[in-house]
């Protein structure tokens, strides 16, 4: 099936609406309500825990066969240690991500995997 330019446009608009819904509806709902302080405190940890879950999954689980990996991912492990050090020292998520990307790119060229 071949899609025309109009079909692509409709697809982009519908995708935008689907992506906007989960962002706009909670914002509209919570602007009129008082959010409890315990919820705000708890929400501070959500980005860190999600980021950690993604990184740990990528480092230690082979998603092709869903088994734990051994030391064949040495470059990623070394980059992870470097990112932990950079994140601890700088407290900057952006700097940590950039350092991690550069470290993985350089280490995969050097360390056999």
What labels would you give this structure?
AzlD domain-containing protein, Brnchd-chn_aa_trnsp_AzlD, 4% strand, mainly alpha, 113 residues, two-stranded antiparallel ribbon, transmembrane helix
Please count the helical segments: 5
| Helix content range | over 70%
Q: Please state how the strands of the largest beta sheet are arranged side by side.
A: 1-2
Could you say which overall geometry the principal axes of the C-alpha atoms support? flat
Intertermini distance: 41 Å
- Profile the largest sheet: 2 strands, antiparallel
Protein name: AzlD domain-containing protein
InterPro entries: Brnchd-chn_aa_trnsp_AzlD
Keywords: Membrane, Transmembrane, Transmembrane helix
Transmembrane segments: 68-88, 94-111
Describe what you observe in this structure.
- Keywords: Membrane, Transmembrane, Transmembrane helix.
- With 113 residues, the chain is mainly alpha-helical.
- 73% of the residues lie in helices and 4% in strands.
- The protein has helices at residues 5-30, 37-43, 46-60, 74-90, 93-110; strands spanning 61-62, 67-68.
- Strands 1-2 form a two-stranded antiparallel ribbon.
- Helix 4 runs antiparallel to helix 5.
Summarize this entry quickly.
With 113 residues, the protein is mainly α. The chain contains five helices and two strands, in the order αααββαα.
Write the layout of secondary structure elements.
Blueprint lengths: L4 H26 L6 H7 L2 H15 E2 L4 E2 L5 H17 L2 H18 L3
Antiparallel strand pairs: 1-2
Helix pairs in contact: 4-5
């Amino acid at each position: 099936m071949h899609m025309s330019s109009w079909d692509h446009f409709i697809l982009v608009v519908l995708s935008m609406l689907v992506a906007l819904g989960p962002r706009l509806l909670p914002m509209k709902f919570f602007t009129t309500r008082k959010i409890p302080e315990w919820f705000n405190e708890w929400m501070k940890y959500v980005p860190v825990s999600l980021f950690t879950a993604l990184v740990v999954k990528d480092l230690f689980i082979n998603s092709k066969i869903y088994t734990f990996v051994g030391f064949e991912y040495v470059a990623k492990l070394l980059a992870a240690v470097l990112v932990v050090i950079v994140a601890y020292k700088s407290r900057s998520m952006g700097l940590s991500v950039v350092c991690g990307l550069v470290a993985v790119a350089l280490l995969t060229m050097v360390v056999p995997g």
